[in-house]
Amino acid sequence: MRNSVTEKRIVLIIGGGIAAYKCLDLIRRLKERQIRVRAVRTRAGQQFVTPLSVGALSNEPVFTDLFDLDAEREIGHIRLSREADLIVVAPATADLIAKMAGGHADDLASTVLMATDKPVLVAPAMNPRMWLHPATRRNVAELTADGIRVLAPAAGEMAERGEAGVGRLPEVPELVATIEDMLARAGGGKLQAAGEAGKGRLAGLHVLVTSGPTHEPIDPVRYIANRSSGKQGHAVAAAAARAGARVTLVSGPVAIADPAGVDVVHVETAAQMLDAVRNALPADVGIFAAAVADWRVANAGREKIKKTAAARTPSLSLVENPDILKTIAASGAHRPGLVIGFAAETERVTDYAAKKLKAKGADWIVANDVSPESGVMGGDRNSVHLVSADGIESWPELSKTEVATRLIERIADKLAAGRSEAAQ
After folding, report:
1. In whole angstroms, what is the distance from residue 19 CA to residue 168 CA?
2. One pLDDT digit (tens) per residue for the chain, 424 residues
3. Phi, psi of 56 (to 5 degrees)
4. Using CA atoms, how far apart are residues 198 and 52, in angstroms rounded to an integer?
5. Which among 367, 370, 408 has a CA at the least distance from the CA of 388?
6. Is 226 part of the annotated catalytic residue set?
7. Beta bridge partners of 136
8. Rounded to an integer, what distance in angstroms lies between the CA atom of residue 408 and that of residue 243?
């Protein structure tokens, strides 16, 4: 029996990989959010986490064997799959993904997955070459076509010496955020961590976020752009939605999925982004995380520019793009109550951010180092400085999801303080 009508329940299938240890932290964080976790370990997963550690954290029986008569009498694999609100597979190994894509049901984990009628979230973790192998790519495409949500693995160092690339299990805060989003969509409501009250700290507010790069055409084939994946801006939009806000995300061209529960406007150029931002106003908070191209070609070619026989390099005349942050910060009655810009710098990060704060008329600037060695552009982690008239607050290196969550908390604190002062 469920303890309350608001309680959510997931089945966590733990695959066999070194990243399985992160599931202990995942269980702990989910329990903090009053999400009940039942764990199923695959045969390989048994080699990495013990039933004692998993059971102690989840306060639930840990399931392993399809033919365990005691477990089958108590609950059974059909009930296990049907009573959950969500099935989470983490870490999902190449072998487990292949079994899911092929429809196998020869152990408890795969049988639960075949028997469920609930949403499924897959968090892959494997060697980079295994992740990029054509068979894995086919299997992931098959799962996606079947309606299963597959998170993109993170990039970084592997457990094996000298191995690095894409294949790390997504960070636990990202997993928690995605699980909350999927449970909210399935259940029609937002989840709150234990101790939080109401519908979210930004409930009833409109938050406008820009994200990703802009593409400024040179001709129908080529364009000028910045190296932005959109991961940080999209994470901010998702965090604002989790905090209860109505969120409008204006996104340049990116290769990542739209955040759940967010109204998304897709654009390509800086001019289109400014128009979309203006159309989204009024907003209580404006967060301008997009990496907008500073210049565009004055007269983009209608046809593809061809190389000449003389091999002359074509000359491009550039003009400055509209400054979206400065324009909205100076928009008078239509200005959001809190305007936040992002500053991507490669040197003297906080100095340039402080100058940008004054020049743009913003309330806050979130500044970070995007030099190549930082790995921020396109990566999954970030180290930022929050610059305001009150000073500079430097944060430790965090996942982009954690940066987004912390930023939204700071925004909620700021707005709450403003309301308190106005009431006095």
Report:
1. 8
2. 444 445 789 999 999 888 899 999 999 999 988 899 999 998 888 888 888 899 889 888 888 776 554 554 445 557 777 888 999 999 999 999 999 999 998 889 999 999 888 999 999 999 888 998 999 999 988 998 888 888 888 777 777 777 777 888 888 888 888 888 788 776 544 444 433 333 578 999 999 999 999 999 999 999 999 888 899 999 999 899 988 999 999 999 998 888 878 999 999 999 999 999 999 999 999 999 999 999 999 988 888 888 876 667 778 899 999 999 999 999 888 899 999 999 988 889 899 999 999 999 999 999 988 776 666 666 677 889 999 999 999 998 888 888 898 999 999 999 988 877 776 6
3. -65, -40
4. 35
5. 367
6. yes
7. none
8. 8
The CA–CA distances, whole Å, from 135 to 104, 129, 142, 147 equal 16, 11, 11, 19
SS3 326: helix
- Tallying the residues shown for the chain, one arrives at 424
Structure tokens belonging to residue 1: 């029996």
Structure tokens belonging to residue 170: 């997504």
Q: How far apart are CA 301 and CA 304, in angstroms?
A: 7
Options 226, 321, 368, 382, the catalytic residue: 226
Question: How far is it, in rounded angstroms, from Cα 381 to Cα 152?
Answer: 14
CA distances to 62, 73, 210, 262 from 266, rounded to whole Å, are 44, 52, 10, 12
- Coil, helix or strand at residue 22: helix
Q: Are residues 341 and 362 in contact, defined by beta-carbon separation less than 8 angstroms? A: yes
Both tokens assigned to 353:
């951010």
Residues 88 and 179: beta-carbon distance below 8 Å: yes
Tokens of 95: 């072998």
Tokens of 221: 């084939």
Going by C-alpha positions, the residue among 18, 97, 96, 14 that lies closest to residue 57 is 14
- Report the distance separating Cα 257 and Cα 278, nearest Å: 24
Return the half-sphere exposure (C-beta side, CA atoms, 13 A cut-off) of residue 283: 29
Closest CA to 201 of 338, 366, 360, 405: 405
- The interaxial angle of helices 22-32 and 51-58, nearest 10 deg, is 10
Judge whether 17 and 126 are in contact, CB under 8 Å: yes
Give the separation between CA 216 and CA 221, rounded to whole angstroms.
Answer: 11
Task: Return phi, psi of residue 98, to 5°.
Answer: -65, -40
Q: What is the DSSP letter of 45?
A: G
Q: What are the DSSP calls for 264-279, one per residue?
A: EEE--SHHHHHHHHHH
